[in-house]
Design brief:
Layout lengths: L14 H8 L3 H22 L32 H37 L1 H14 L4 H12 L3 H28 L2 H8 L4 H37 L11 H8 L8 H28 L1 H6 L1
Helix pairs in contact: 2-3, 2-10, 3-4, 3-6, 3-8, 4-6, 5-6, 6-8, 8-9, 8-10, 9-10
């Protein structure tokens, strides 16, 4: 006697339907525009910058904004606009790689905990709790003491801090999927835990992970800026928004705009990603939008 599986959850809305709804969501649209501008800025810096951001010319130091230097120059005579363009690359690289580390490892651990349960789940969650005791900055300080400062150290520190977050989010979402009727029916038909995880659980938690990754990307940019500000992240001569803020600190009274431009860049990048994540959360779960 064959067993008839209950219908799986309805497939996601068609692509054109999703975009039609998303274009009516203010948070999503604003976040998408700001995030696209950040990515476009980084891509543009690969092809063109007003000046070479690595050229030092002390005769041009602390020039105000003008037609020649749109945002002025820094204490070393470097063009601020060029530094901002190239600095966007560092923020995106650190954010993408660090979030990818947390997403891949954390998702795998969360799916493992949800599929195996028992002592495996308990062990993974306790290790995740222990990981929360070491924020990115503290991890970077410890790693710097051993290996020295640098972009790679910042990526590793932020990535390690992201793993417990993704593990907990994945495990909570996966546990809810494991209780669904179609998963119970799949188990009754003899499907193994890993096959169910790949075919049923992972596709149904993907939307939650996408939203979480977007939000963690914004936090990774903030963490990279903070580490660079403290001298633990991106090192000279590679431009970085956080180090631009650090260098501008001693020039606030002579050239206050030196701190404004990188600060605004960080604010817009983080705001855009947060709004994008907020919009995606509403679009993937319309019930949240109806409650507002």
């Amino acid at each position: 006697m064959s067993v008839v599986l209950p219908a799986a959850p309805p497939p996601p809305a068609k692509t054109h339907g999703f975009w039609r709804r998303s274009m009516r969501h203010p948070s999503f649209v604003i976040g998408l525009v700001l995030s696209a501008l950040m990515v476009a800025t980084a891509l543009l810096s690969l092809l063109w910058t007003p000046y070479n951001p690595y050229d030092v010319d002390m005769s041009l130091r602390l020039l105000p904004p003008s037609g020649a230097h749109w945002l002025g120059t820094d204490p070393y005579g470097r063009d601020v606009a060029s530094l901002l363009l190239v600095g966007a690359r560092a923020s995106i690289v650190v954010g993408v790689v660090a979030v990818s580390i947390g997403l891949v490892i954390g998702t795998a651990l969360g799916l493992l905990a949800s599929a195996r349960r028992g002592w495996v789940e308990e062990a993974i969650m306790r290790v995740a709790d222990f990981g929360f005791a070491f924020p990115a900055i503290l991890s970077a300080i410890m790693l710097t003491a051993v290996f020295g400062p640098g972009m790679v150290i910042a990526i590793v520190a932020i990535g390690l801090y992201n793993i417990p977050t993704f593990a907990r989010v994945t495990r909570a979402s996966a546990n809810a999927v494991w209780a669904r009727e179609y998963v119970l029916a799949a188990r009754a038909c003899g499907k193994g835990a890993w096959r169910i995880t790949i075919e049923h659980v992972l596709p149904n938690v993907a939307s939650v992970l996408i939203v979480q990754a977007t939000i963690r990307f914004a936090l990774a940019i903030l963490a990279e800026a903070a580490l660079s500000y403290l001298g633990l992240g991106t090192q000279p001569p590679q431009p970085s928004w956080g180090r631009m803020l650090s260098e501008a600190q001693s020039m606030l009274f002579q050239a206050p705009l030196l701190g404004v431009f990188p600060g605004v860049a960080i604010v817009l990048a983080v705001l855009g990603l947060n709004l994008l994540g907020d919009g995606l959360r509403d679009l993937f779960d319309p019930r949240l939008a109806r409650r507002r």
